[in-house]
Here is the input.
Amino acid sequence: MKTRQWLLNDHPRGRPLKDSDFRLVETEIADEPAPGRALAQVLWLGFDPAQKGWMENVADYVAPMALGDVMRGSGIVRVVKSNTPRLKEGALYAGLTGWTEWLETDGAGFEPVHPDLPPTAMLSVLGTTGLTAWCGLFKLGEPRPGDTVVVSGAAGATGSTVGQLAKVAGARAIGIAGGPEKCRWLVEEAGYDAAIDYKAEPVRARLKALCPGGIDVVFDNVGGAILNEMLGEIATGARVVICGGISRYETGTMPAGPENYFNLVFRRATMRGFIVLDWASEFPEIRRRLAGLVQDGRLAFRIDEQQGFEQAPATLMRLFSGANRGKQVLKLAD
Ligand SMILES: NC(=O)c1ccc[n+]([C@@H]2O[C@H](COP(=O)([O-])OP(=O)(O)OC[C@H]3O[C@@H](n4cnc5c(N)ncnc54)[C@H](OP(=O)(O)O)[C@@H]3O)[C@@H](O)[C@H]2O)c1
Here is the structure.
């Protein structure tokens, strides 16, 4: 049988993504999986800003990508034929599928979807997104009741989860996002106490007004100027969590060091980065707790579903224009 695949066609270093960074091909795949392997159909792909960094080979926490490799990415599959006890025929699993419509896999790294939640939860609130929000916030941010937590990239998949987890911890949550619609959504639906539209409002002045006692926990997905403004308003003993730096993912140049970094000294604060994979051994337990919060109605998540395998590159690009509303996924098949 045949499957379509998207291959890496160029390394987009120091520039935005282009259509020509990807190449669509059709290739043969065996109808009958080899012993110890299964044939699976990809139903959804999930998208993460980190995929651009993987294409550039900027990160050393994943293997480098070569031109001609199938684009790396996660997805949800349905197992169609199985010759391995790891994967049951007919069942749905989440894992690193790559951008392909069909794949043969030994099932390593694939997890069953949650039986009582939509399958795409495994790409969002129960996937890397939710795990990143949980680990960054609770292991590094350590919010306490009454603390003020400020999140950049707040309306995104990770950011919107962080705000809700901060509320579960009894903290105030202030989100920074682009545009009035995202800011309204943060307050009216995602449980944030207040939101700052960084495209229309003076971020520093709004932080001062909203955080009179200073910021206890910064959860930064963005870097650059917004991080600098948040650093200027930290409280004594603040924890600054560096999760991502999407404002520089398309330029490739390292931003000048944040001018306000020395406030870390005056405020006796810490600033730490993390890679969520370092807590992989805890993922089953954290996932169980995240699922419990969703089922109790304390943690909502929103999925932005695009359609059609040929749209994969355009769907990844949505993350960098801010077009996505919640976790970006692409539906390939029913
Ligand atoms: N450290 C880890 O282990 C780890 C693991 C997973 C993800 N991450 C990071 O977490 C962050 C969020 O990822 P996600 O999957 O949840 O994506 P996301 O936040 O759902 O989507 C990206 C959002 O970033 C914002 N953005 C894009 N360009 C920007 C710019 N130049 N300046 C400011 N904001 C910009 C846009 O929102 P606006 O419209 O509000 O601008 C966009 O919607 C990323 O930086 C990712 O790399 C880190």
In short: The CA atoms of residues 79 and 158 lie 28 Å apart. The first strand starts at residue 2 and ends at 8. Residues 48-50, 128-129, 132, 153, 155-159, 177-179, 182, 221-222, 243-244, 246-247, 274-276, 319-320, 322, 324 surround NAP (CB under 6 Å).
